[in-house]
Design brief:
This protein is of the alpha/beta class. The chain has a single domain, classed as Rossmann fold, CATH 3.40.50.12370. 40% of the residues lie in helices and 21% in strands. It has 9 helices and 10 strands. Helix 3 packs parallel to helix 4 and helix 7 runs parallel beside helix 8.
């Protein structure tokens, strides 16, 4: 499954009007610039049923002006549009993303109190496209020089790797594919003088598996390397991302957590400790591709 054919026509940028909003818009614009895509600035206001229609309309106009102000002065002058609605933020972002056939949803990682926003899991698990979660400490430029992608060989992680290489090809970024063996891997349990050699053989086997999997999707993008390590997945991914000075971490979101509206342990941990912008790729996209693929979509071919 080669990753060279990638189209991004529209990015829905979910704006909370918090101080971090400008950073999220800058990242969306940076990605849009590479694909001549439209940035759709979107904000959902709380429902106030007691307000008069005129007051609600005035509030919407004010928010629209703020959204377009955020879109001013962006590098490359991407196409900007904006929309304002009322309702539950997560539900409205998902609804709007589907309605405008969004290829990426961009959103800030943290709530106003500094914690990871609960919107992230609600949106990423159910999104019709990948979700770019922008960390507050990331560069305002949105430049991608190095991408780390986590691969556990499940379908979601392989799809995530496909997206990682597609984005890397567009910006000529380096990719590091990482597989983490369990901390308590199934190696020899008795005292064995050859245990280090056995561990090396296991890691060598998984390095070959990783190479085979990634080679199929990297296409002509040769600027990549594979890392196989062991330990707690979150800790190892954070370590590798820091050591490689990664600008973006790409992860798959497994469908098994869909009913809980929460992430698995590794993704939750990454959101909290990585201090990197993260691209989350829902496994549900695989099923949607099988049922109703779209020619214009971001889906790597």
């Amino acid at each position: 499954m080669a990753s060279s054919n990638l189209r991004v026509d529209r990015i829905v940028c979910a704006v909370t009007l918090s101080p971090s909003s400008r950073r999220v818009v800058a990242w969306a614009a940076s990605l849009a610039r590479r694909y001549d895509a439209e940035v759709r600035l979107f904000h959902s206001m709380p429902i106030w049923s007691e307000r008069a229609a005129a007051e609600r309309g005035a509030d919407s106009e004010q928010v629209l002006k703020k959204l377009f102000t955020l879109g001013q002065g962006l590098r490359g002058r991407p196409r900007i549009s904006a929309a304002v609605t009322e309702g539950d933020a997560a539900a409205e972002i998902l609804r709007h993303a589907r309605m405008v056939h969004s290829d990426v949803v961009a959103i800030g990682m943290h709530a106003r109190d500094g914690s990871v926003s609960p919107l992230i899991a609600q949106i990423a698990i159910n999104a019709p496209c990948p979700v770019l979660v922008v960390d507050d400490t990331s560069s305002l430029s949105g430049i991608l020089n190095h991408i780390v992608v986590a691969i556990n060989f499940r379908p979601a992680s392989l799809l995530a790797a496909n997206y990682a290489f597609a984005f890397a090809a567009a910006v000529n970024a380096r990719v590091t594919a990482v597989h983490v063996l369990p901390e308590r891997w199934e190696g020899p349990r008795r005292a064995d003088a050859n245990i280090d050699e056995t561990r090396e053989l296991v890691q060598r086997h998984f390095r070959q598996l990783l190479h085979n999997a990634v080679s199929d999707m990297s296409g002509s993008h040769g600027n990549w390397s594979g890392v196989v390590t062991s330990g707690r997945p979150c800790a190892e991914l954070v370590r590798v991302a820091a050591a490689r000075d990664a600008d973006l971490i790409v992860m798959g979101v497994d469908a098994e957590h869909k009913s809980q509206n929460t992430f698995g342990e590794t993704t939750s941990c990454m959101m909290q400790f990585a201090r990197r912008t993260v691209l989350l790729v829902p496994e549900r996209l695989l099923r949607e591709q099988q049922v109703a693929p779209r020619d214009r979509s971001i889906r790597p071919q």
